[in-house]
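Customer escalation, tier 2.

The customer says the design service returned an amino acid string that "doesn't look like it belongs to this structure." They asked us to rerun it and document both sides in this ticket. The original structure tokens are below, unchanged.
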């Protein structure tokens, strides 16, 4: 086991030369933990190391040249010692970094398998179907295509869009099908980031996640749109809705304030700009206090 761990660092170590020149506390922490884990591969130390990687990734999230090697290391460690974390790092590696190279093919196949293990069949099929479309000459594509029965990724999503309206529950939708729809839309965008359908599907998935009261999922997808699709026509709405959720659903006034301010900085003439200004002026006030203020202004 110790030799396997050392081999992982040998493979990826050369990729960290540039980042070592910009040493910071997060980097120093994971480097120290790597040395500890070389001689003590305990669950506690693995968790500490992955936490240190995550901290470094978060600090440098806008610097792909720095975080991609760390993501690859975290993925390798997860494959060896912490299977439940594999999907997290595959998602991060695929998002915004997808090309048509062999590494991308490898990530897609791995993610398809992870989703299948998680009983997310539709999302898994979307990933595998996208793999076939992107890599039709890969030796595995013929077998995968046969297993899918020729169904295309977008057809899977279209069917789920129909299914979510059948047998509605207390939310006015079919929640089981709706959760599958959200997962499938995310899978499509991961595998096809440059497809014009991807931001549309992500926005729809975020709205569905919001309706299902899974606010953290909705916020994550809105952030995905904001960061990866700044020119998409509904991205301003995504930022405003993010601020609204933070304020009214999660009562996180500090983050809501930052989101509203960013919205006004980016989109001062947007249709929601007046609403954002009003929300900023009344952050933290109860609905009753806001109503009293409105009535007082009318007088």
């Amino acid at each position: 086991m110790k030799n396997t761990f050392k081999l992982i660092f040998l493979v990826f170590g050369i990729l960290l030369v540039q980042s070592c020149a910009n040493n910071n506390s997060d980097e120093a922490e994971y480097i120290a933990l790597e040395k500890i884990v070389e001689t003590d591969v305990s669950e506690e130390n693995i968790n500490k190391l992955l936490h240190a990687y995550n901290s470094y990734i978060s600090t440098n999230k806008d610097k792909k040249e720095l975080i991609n090697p760390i993501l690859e290391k975290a993925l390798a460690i997860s494959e060896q010692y912490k299977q439940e974390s594999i999907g997290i790092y595959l998602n991060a590696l695929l998002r915004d970094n997808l090309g048509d190279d062999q590494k991308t093919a490898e990530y897609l196949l791995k993610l398809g398998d992870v989703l299948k293990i998680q009983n997310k069949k539709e999302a898994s099929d979307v990933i595998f179907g996208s793999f076939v479309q992107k890599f039709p000459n890969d030796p595995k594509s013929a077998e995968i295509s046969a297993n899918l029965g020729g169904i295309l990724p977008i057809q899977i999503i279209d069917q789920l869009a129909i299914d979510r309206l059948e047998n509605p529950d207390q939310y006015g939708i079919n929640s089981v099908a709706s959760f599958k729809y959200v997962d499938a839309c995310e899978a499509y965008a991961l595998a096809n980031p440059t497809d014009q359908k991807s931001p549309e599907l992500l926005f729809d998935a975020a709205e569905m996640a919001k309706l299902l009261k899974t606010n953290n999922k909705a916020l994550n997808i809105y952030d995905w749109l904001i960061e990866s699709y700044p020119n998409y026509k509904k991205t301003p709405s995504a930022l405003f809705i993010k601020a609204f959720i933070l304020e009214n659903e999660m009562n996180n006034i500090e983050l809501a304030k930052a989101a509203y301010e960013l919205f006004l900085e980016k989109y001062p003439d947007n249709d929601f700009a007046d609403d954002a200004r009003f929300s900023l002026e009344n952050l933290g006030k109860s609905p009753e206090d806001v109503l009293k203020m409105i009535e007082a202004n009318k007088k």
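Tier 2 assessment: The sequence is consistent with the input. The chain has 17 helices and no strands. The CA atoms of residues 5 and 38 lie 7 Å apart. Sent an explanation to the customer and offered a walkthrough call.
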